[in-house]
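seq:
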Amino acid sequence: MAESSRQKRITGRVMHEFKHGELKSGRGGKAGKVRSRRQAIAIALQEAGDSKYDSKRRNRRNLRRTERKEARGQTAQQEREGRSHVGARRKRESTKAMGGRNARKQTARGHRAALARAHRADGHTRQELYEKAKKRHVEGRSKMSKRQLENALGLS
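struct:
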């Protein structure tokens, strides 16, 4: 089976865990450390959703599960290296490490920039803009972002 770059990365991580004695088998790793290279490869392919023994549906499910695990920082490698999650803190990002997924938090720098924008001399918070739009009966205001509200009210 042809592996995507994301699957290759997952396979590489699992084999890295195996080499460092961090790869465990069984539910929740309760069966102990994996000592067999063949078993490590089987686990790697399964986590990457590229096992020839599983159905397409099952493979997709396994890949999604692995991605969730990596995003939460629950892989053995991440836990050993002290990373809470792959990628930066408090920043919306789409990196190779996250498999092209957008994080939901910002980096500290991104957070500060957002606060600075919100509290400029002419800056209004989204809530204030929403209240103005409500008074003017702007249609679709509840689904608008701050920028869209500014445009609808002619403030930008």
